[in-house]
Amino acid sequence: MKKGLFITFEGVDGCGKTTQIKLLDNYLRQNGYKTLLTREPGAIGLGEKLRDILLNYDGEVSSKCESFLFLADRAQHVDCIIKPAIEKGVIVLCDRHTDSTIAYQGYGRGVDIESLKYLNSLATGDLKPDLTIVFDVDIETSAQRVGKQKDRMESAGIEFFKRVRNGFLEIAKQEPERVKVINSVQAIESIHYEVLEKVKNGLE
Ligand code: TYD
After folding, report:
1. Residue nearest to atom 20 of ligand 1 (CA)
2. 3-class DSSP state for residue 100?
3. What is the pLDDT of residues 28-82, one digit of tens each?
4. Taking a C-beta distance cutoff of 8 angstroms, is the pair 103, 15 a contact?
5. Is 18 in the pocket of ligand 1 (CB under 6 A)?
6. How far separated are the first and last CA of the chain, in Å rounded?
7. N or C: less crowded end of the chain, CB within 10 Å?
C-alpha cells in the first residue's frame, strides 16, 4: 500500500506559516489528495490540555519542564494521529514539529541540543518528515505580525527570537535535503508558489 507523506512547517512566531499551510492544504485537496492538517502543540484531546499549559500558564516553568511538555505532546500526536494517517496513505501537514523544539528549547532556551535530538527521536519513534519548510522572517517583521497580544512563548523577548531564528537556519544548513528555507517577507501568493514548487518535487 502506498504510504503517505509527512510535511512540516516551521519558523519563528509571525512567520506566516499557518496561512501557508492552509493554502497548501486547499491546493492538495482540490487536486484529489487526502490530507490531514494538524499542529503542535495541541492537535486534539490531551494535546489541547498540554497546549493550554504551554501557552497560558503564568507561573514559573523551567526550560527542561517546558521541553518535556512539548515532547509529551509530540509523542501522543505521532502515535495517535500522525502515524495512523501516514499509514493510510494520507499527506500529513503539520504546523510545527521536532525542529521547533531544537530551535526554541535548544537554541532559544539553551537546553542541550544533542539531548533534545535524542528525546525527539524517542518521542517520534524515529519518524522523520519527508520535507520541512522553514519560513524565514527578520525579527522586526515577526514582532510586528505578532502584535501586542502575546502568549507565554511570544513574551520571551527579542534576543530569544534572534537565537530561535538562527536555530532554524542552522538546522536547514545541517540537513539541506530535508529542510528548505523560504524568504517569507514576500507577497502571500509568491510564498505559496515557492511552497508548491518544493512540495511537487516530493509528490513526483
Ligand atoms: P502557536 O500559537 O501555535 O504559534 P504559531 O502560530 O507561531 O505556531 O504557539 C506555539 C508556540 O510554541 C510557539 O511560540 C512556538 C512554541 N513551541 C516551542 O517552543 N517548542 C516546540 O517544540 C513547539 C512545537 C512549539
Report:
1. 101
2. helix
3. 999 999 999 999 999 888 999 999 999 999 999 999 999 999 999 999 999 999 9
4. no
5. yes
6. 17
7. C
